[in-house]
Write a structure and sequence with these properties.
Blueprint (H helix, E strand, L loop, with lengths): L6 E6 L4 H11 L4 E8 L10 E5 L9 H5 L4 E4 L10 H22 L3 E5 L27 H19 L4 E7 L1 E3 L4 H9 L16 E3 L7 E3 H12 L5 E5 L7 H8 L3 E3 L2 H13 L7 H7 L8 H7 L7 H14 L15
Helix pairs in contact: 1-6, 3-4
Length: 342
């Protein structure tokens, strides 16, 4: 912490789903003196104690060292989900861009790096139990998102070995949703052709019950609070973050009074692959494969060492998100702009 005045924190990817929540919480924290938000496009949004700078991590010289100089911590959230048909493009942004961030943290002598990893970094695991942070992080190699998250776990292993004086924290959250992220996430995963009924599950005649489709969710604000707590403590290493209970067809059926109907995994995947191949669906069939194999996470370490508790249950998160889709909800940044379905 900077002497006498509080922390100076730099946040990459500060205009996205997680970034806007992290910036808002940090701007309200009395222990934070200033926040510098980095993004490709400066938003029309000015929370307290926050300045903005335009930075493109795909640039060979993004000017990160100057931005990081005298910072007490860097929170690295920048990530691109698309284009899913061009994995080389997401690799340049996500992996090479992250490597530039790590190198700049070391060059500027920043004492704390908090990195946004993901449940997607984990190797396939159980759906009837929960794994802790020691579970292997080799991802599902066919899915670019998982492959990139897993690669950066290895890069951070090397970074920690070479820079033991830097405190590195890796957050591994479940799928993150909130009302304001609805339009952004619909564009990223559902695309502009997403029909109305998925946003209103009560109108569906049945809910698909696909073997292996049991996942965890978390409100973005709850994840952002974990980042804030990590900055205010001296913890190191990875932290699982998820709300209870896990989401599956049975829970969704109870929420929306709909009947789950068992569907074969291969039939659903074929439909997704066809839509993706025709550029009707942004989410790839490889990501679908990964979701069916992701383990459920045990969040004991975050509760014990961070004192973290999610304020929202998983059903509450999902209901808020679906309401946001119906309303075309968004926020005052370019990635988070609102737009109704249709």
């Amino acid at each position: 912490m900077s002497s006498g005045t509080g922390m100076r924190v730099v946040v990459t990817g500060a205009t996205g789903n997680v970034g806007t929540s992290v910036v808002r919480l940090l701007s309200e924290d009395p222990e934070v003196a200033s926040v510098l938000g980095l993004a490709r496009r400066i938003p029309d949004w000015s929370p307290p104690k926050t300045d903005w700078a335009a930075v493109d991590l795909t640039s060979e010289r993004p000017g990160l060292v100057e931005r990081f100089t005298d910072a007490d911590a860097v929170v690295h959230l920048a990530w691109a989900f698309q284009p899913t048909h061009d994995p080389a493009a997401t690799w340049r942004t996500n992996v090479l861009g992250s490597m530039r961030v790590f190198e700049a943290v070391a060059a500027a002598g920043v004492p704390v790096l908090v990195h946004a990893s993901s449940v997607g970094a984990y190797s396939p695991g159980p759906k009837d139990g929960a794994v802790d942070e020691s579970w292997p992080t080799h991802g599902w190699p066919d899915a670019a998102y998982c492959r990139e998250k897993a690669y950066l776990e290895r890069a951070l292993d090397t970074f920690e070995r070479d820079h033991p004086g830097t405190r590195v924290v890796r957050m591994r959250p479940a799928f993150l949703f909130r009302r304001e992220s609805a339009s952004e996430q619909r564009r990223i995963f559902g695309g502009r052709f997403l029909p109305g009924p998925p946003a209103r599950p009560e109108l569906l005649p049945f809910l698909p019950d696909i073997p292996g489709l049991r996942v965890q969710a978390l409100h973005t604000d709850d994840a952002a609070n974990a980042y804030r707590l990590a900055l205010r403590s001296d913890v190191r290493g990875p932290f699982n973050l998820a709300a209870e209970p896990p989401i599956d067809a049975r829970l969704l059926g109870e929420m929306f009074d709909a009947r789950p109907v068992r569907l074969p995994r291969t039939a659903v995947r074929s439909a997704i692959a066809a839509a993706w191949g025709l550029h009707l669906l942004p989410a790839s069939p490889h990501l679908f494969d990964a979701v069916l194999r992701l383990p459920l996470m045990d969040c004991t370490r975050a509760r014990v060492e961070l004192g973290w508790r999610p304020e929202h249950t998983a059903p509450e998160v999902l209901e808020e998100f679906l309401l946001g889709i119906r309303q075309g909800a968004g926020a005052r940044t370019e990635p988070m702009r609102g737009r109704k379905v249709g």
